[in-house]
Amino acid sequence: MTTNTRFVQTDLCNLCLFSVDLETARKDVVFLLDGSDGTRSGFPAMRDFVQRVVEKLTVEENRDRVSVVQYSREPEANFYLNTYTTKENVVDAVTGLRHKGGRPLNTGAALQYVRDNVFTASSGSRRLDGVPQLLILLSGGRSFDNVDTPAAALKELGVKVFAIGTRSSDSREMQRISQDPSHAMSVSDFTDLPSIQQQLLSSVETVVVGVTTETPTDVVFLLDGSDGTRSGFPAMRDFVQRVVEKLTVEENRDRVSVVQYSREPEANFYLNTYTTKENVVDAVTGLRHKGGRPLNTGAALQYVRDNVFTASSGSRRLDGVPQLLILLSGGRSFDNVDTPAAALKELGVKVFAVGTRSSDIRELQKISYDPSFALSVSEFTDLPNVHQQLISSRAPSRDVVFLLDGSDGTRAGFPAMRDFVQRVVETLAVDENKDRVALVQYSRDPAAQFYLNTFNTKDDIVNTVRGLRHKGGRPLNTGAALQYVRDNIFTASSGSRSLQGIPQMLILLSGGRSNDNVDVSASALKESGVLIFGIGTRNSSREVERIVTDPSYSQSVSEFTDIPRVQEQYLSSLKTQLLKAIPITPTVDKSIARKDVVFLLDGSDGTRSGFPAMRDFVQRVVEKLTVEENRDRVSVVQYSREPEANFYLNTYTTKENVVDAVTGLRHKGGRPLNTGAALQYVRDNVFTASSGSRHLDGVPQLLILLSGGRSFDNVDTPAAALKELGVKVFAIGTRSSDSREMQRISQDPSQAMSVSDFTDLPSIQQQLLSSTDLCNLCLFSVDLETARKDVVFLLDGSDGTRSGFPAMRDFVQRVVEKLTVEENRDRVSVVQYSREPEANFYLNTYTTKENVVDAVTGLRHKGGRPLNTGAALQYVRDNVFTASSGSRRLDGVPQLLILLSGGRSFDNVDTPAAALKELGVKVFAVGTRSSDIRELQKISYDPSFALSVSEFTDLPNVHQQLISVLGTVIVPDPTMKPTVKPTIIGKKKDVVFLLDGSDDTRAGFPAMRDFVQRVVETLAVDENKDRVALVQYSRDPAAQFYLNTFNTKDDIVNTVRGLRHKGGRPLNTGAALQYVRDNIFTASSGSRSLQGIPQMLILLSGGRSNDNVDVSASALKESGVLIFGIGTRNSSREVERIVTDPSYSQSVSEFTDIPRVQDLVSRCLQLEQGALIAEKCRGYHKIPVTQCLSRISQTFRASSSNCYPLWKQWLLELLQKPQQF
Questions:
Q1: Over 227-286, what HEC string results?
Q2: Quick one: CA dihedral 1000, 1003, 1008, 1009, positive or negative?
Q3: Sorting pLDDT into bands at 50, 70 and 90, what band is 200?
Q4: Full DSSP string of 561-618
Q5: Of 35, 472, 848, 1164, whose CB count within 10 A is highest?
Q6: What is the Cα 303 distance to its own chain's centre?
């Protein structure tokens, strides 16, 4: 009985047991104090309270650590967890605290700050070492900002939050912030804090004990309930009952859920349904076999991930409680299991699979958390035979690497080092699926003696260790050796199982001080999750302490010949740590854009005077980034003859630290300038995993080069190597640089920029930011037959659609027939809903059209009431448009939702519809006469995407209409180059007029005004069709009206007629272009660019600009704006540079001559059709596209030539026959 209990507490949870109390357990404690104006009088009491709590702690580096943060409008750390290592110092710092002051009170921002900047390894947090993380909040008022998201983020990180408020606080807010509502306390005023001190200490002690002692477990049983297991089901039920008998079922200990599945899964009960063992056993005893076919294990795995391992179903995953899934499956799955199994592992669920001779053992191994967790029986009646095997199979696995100093200085001690390795190996369970071992020796260079996948038996390893020969050599490069094991040993190809969550351990024996730097490579190992242990001698012990994960993981001896003296003690400690080691799965929100940005700065003698400007430029760009470990990372490298890294991508994890490092940069100096060698260096040494690069995780890699001269070496080969690696290179040069060289280095010639001197860098900063997004938005048309798409059908399955359901099913089938269903092409999912939604199958359930059609044909009407469309929209957002369900949104694949709804929703649809649009999902809605058309228009991505039929039997009437809309939808694609010109399809436009209102255009202004009026007359002005804005400018721009000011043509025409000439000088066209980009082509001003609506700018400029126009014009083009222009004899060349294409410009002698070209320029507004025509005219006229484009271009340049009437007639003819295309 003792053995079984121990299984529940240790093996089942994969944690070690040890007793703890408040005075002995290690803790990281952060106090977050309200320092706003409202707490000035109470601050001394708050300070005293903190001091008294600290007095109860054991403050030492390896015991308790303390940090204090104050906040009002903004948070500010008074000191971090690693600032002080003694209680005396902490108390002194607390005693000296001064009230911060300020308003308003932004508690949400403060919670986010401590999460991102205090509970981090760099600030002294030992969260990754399993040390409990506690936050004690003292707040004297209601927050002005939202606290829910940052509070949830802290809880997800595993931080236990205690909140103390006053009568001025919002008690509900305090409860929401706290880890548990019972952890929210209240006092009348902060002077009453002593009255709750003991209550807080008791709560803290309870939490710490809960974190570090017997760990509760959430156990889910997933049972094959298909027709094939009917005879074996009683044995499956008995098996579940026997396992449950071994658990301690209580609300705060073990929780149990049971799910059965066949074609579809069904929860018998959830993790929070029962809180006693008796109730669970009764429920299990009463289980009835589900029945049904086929067996869809993939869908069942997805179901438990999305519906059982959730907080609402009782899962405590976010509280750090181990999550276990035990699958009993009696056959091969009919659907794909890989993606949902991977999603469960990513969630941190430990999956154990038990199959029969009818199961596919490889499938079970793929599903299991580790292949060794897949067990097999002949029949389910044999389950008692594997009961103990299931228990023992969960013994922890480890990958252990020994790194031995083999330099000349350790020759005498090497036999003792060898014996030590042998004795450690003897304690391991060496097997391919248990413990693996590798060994590396090093001196000047490292050399692998054997890898993690070289040997599978203990005997082979011990024999090899006994035969080890001392390497010899000097100097001792420990840093290089650490880097070597990270890059070459802790890798999948060398046998590492880190991606499977197996603990990774390094045991270092070093006998001397390293000749190279060890900090960067040691940090890289720790950040990648490797636990480092070390033994040093009197010559190396301090360095070894810096290298190891925790100082307690290091041991010192006088010489290695003394190892036997400490061997037993260290082995005991080491074994304890090996047993305690559990895999830590980092949680990264992949929906958030991330970038790795490297600055490569010319630090040669020629840039000495310009270096301060380069440094300032880097600082300004960094200010625009979100520097965090899981967001943006930054590195800076300087070079002249040779390159030198100032800091790597993983050196700093906060913007503040990066900015400080940039501010402190010193000019390198030296000559000649070897740009080629520098490019090769960043490729080989900076854009690497060991230096913090995440290119293997698909994170965009950006290199920004600032070079002030021509390179003395060849740049072509290293530049090509960077591009091949996927690095986007942006090059900025000066007049001393070789512009062609800059273009060859850049990812695209258009990404090479130039300034006169580096002091002019601010003039191109916005251009760079737009180019790198550091702007990810490109528009492209989706070809329904060739482009990849993820298509989700959301069907109204309520009682009201029973008679129409066959027609809905047929409609889905016909649409699917038009798709190319393959894993790497189109994917399809179907969800039905009434009161609640239910997925019939996910995007990754089927990979062939045949399977999808079969599944659609077999759909059964769901039934139920009322109709909750809002909940269904939220469901598909949270559970279907996700990577785990097969969505490829993060890969830039268009996401389409087709809703068929037969009635008005009983719940609110606005919020979930907005959430889908924000996610980038294009929603199409089809309703009946019973539906609310306005509701469908609100749900749809665009009101024109809402279609209506009398009854669902009329769906064939809108089939082609829907297909046409699907085929022309415009979607954002972050994978496309920003320089790609958009293909614009559709009749809606946002048109902005930018008029030169300077003193020089006073005489021509009436003609300009008439021109605008005549163009507007050709538009279909309406809120959901064409929109118009107008800006005048001279020295400064001024908006006359915005895109969302007027909804009717009459209002615009009347306003244009009443325009007054602005006047003023000089003429700053560049500033005006930037103004319309930043203030007019925005959603708040009515721009619909995010909805894919074409954006057009028509510029009328009568003189040469006094400022630079190139940067702002480029920024507009790169954001997808089509620029057309009319210039005079004073401005025509400049206008040609500004417009999207020279053919989009027109020149007149004076603006009074505008009527002569009025008709032609009006035709410019048909270019959204012209783009389509240009692409399609080959099929219509049987002439090459190039000739077609040339014909258009020539026509625009010579409006008065004889070809213009022909062009006009040809264009009109094409526009009248769109069916030809």
A1: HHHCCCHHHHHHHHHHHHHCCCECCCCEEEEEEEECCCEEEEECCCCCCCHHHHHHHHHC
A2: positive
A3: low
A4: GGHHHHHHHHHHHHHHHHHH---------TTS--EEEEEEEE-SGGGTTTHHHHHHHH
A5: 35
A6: 23
Residue type, 425: V
pTM, to two decimals:
0.29
Residue 646, token pair as written in the block: 């100032």
Strands 1121-1127 and 1095-1101 turn out to be parallel
The DSSP bridge partners found for residue 733 are 707, 754
Confidence of residue 1172 (pLDDT cuts 50, 70, 90): very low
The answer, yes or no, to whether residue 76 has pLDDT greater than 50, is yes
CA distance 333 to 319: 33
> In sequence order, what E strands does 1034-1182 have?
1037-1041, 1095-1101, 1121-1127, 1145-1147
Q: Mention every residue, 6+ apart, whose C-beta is less than 8 A from residue 389.
A: 375
Give the pLDDT confidence score for residue 958 in this predicted structure: 60
Query: What's CA 124's distance to the chain center, in Å?
Result: 25
Q: Does the pLDDT at position 501 exceed 80?
A: no
* Residue 59 DSSP SS3: strand
Gap between the Cα atoms of 303 and 309, Å rounded: 9
Q: Between 1163 and 1085, name the one with better pLDDT.
A: 1085
pLDDT confidence of residue 1093: 85
Q: Where residue 919 falls among pLDDT bands split at 50, 70, 90?
A: confident
Q: Could you tell me the two tokens for 304?
A: 């438990």
Structure-model confidence comparison of residues 210 and 536, the more confident one: 536
Spell out a b/e string for 445-462, using b for 16 or more CB atoms within 10 Å of the CB, else e.
Answer: ebebbbbbbbbeebeebb
User: How many angstroms separate the CA atoms of 220 and 323, rounded?
Assistant: 8
Distance CA 747, CA 731 (A): 9
Q: Which of 688, 672, 682 is nearest to 704 (CA)?
A: 682
E strands, 782-842, in order: 789-796, 826-833, 837-841
Structure tokens at 653: 């994890």
Of 518, 628, 524, 656, nearest in space to 119 by CA? 628
pLDDT category, 196, cuts 50, 70, 90? low
Q: Which two tokens stand for residue 995?
A: 């008029």
Q: What is the pLDDT of residues 981-1023, one digit of tens each?
A: 333 334 588 999 999 999 989 988 988 898 898 889 888 898 7
Task: Please give the mean pLDDT across all residues of the chain.
Answer: 81
pLDDT of the residue at 772? 46
Please state, in angstroms and rounded to a whole number, the distance separating the CA atoms of residues 159 and 157.
Answer: 6
CA–CA gap between residue 796 and residue 901 (Å, rounded): 5
What's the pLDDT band for 78 if we cut at 50, 70, 90? very high
More confident residue, 1191 or 787: 787
What the block records as the tokens of 1160 is 């032609």
Secondary structure of residue 667 in the 3-state scheme: coil
* Residues β-bridged to residue 165: 139, 186
Residue 176, amino acid: R
pLDDT digits over 264-295, tens only? 999 999 999 999 999 999 999 999 999 998 99
On whether the CB atoms of residues 94 and 54 are closer than 8 A, the answer is yes
Token pair for residue 243?
A: 């396992």
Distance CA 827, CA 167 (A): 55
Among candidate residues 1081, 1089, 1164, 1077, the one with its CA nearest the CA of residue 1115:
1077
pLDDT at 1159: 44
Closest of 512, 491, 476 to residue 438, by C-alpha: 491
Helix (H, G, I), strand (E, B) or coil at 803: coil
Please state, as a whole number, how many other Cβ atoms lie within 10 Å of the Cβ of residue 1090.
13
Cα first-last separation, the chain: 78
Q: What does the pLDDT average to over 744-766?
A: 76
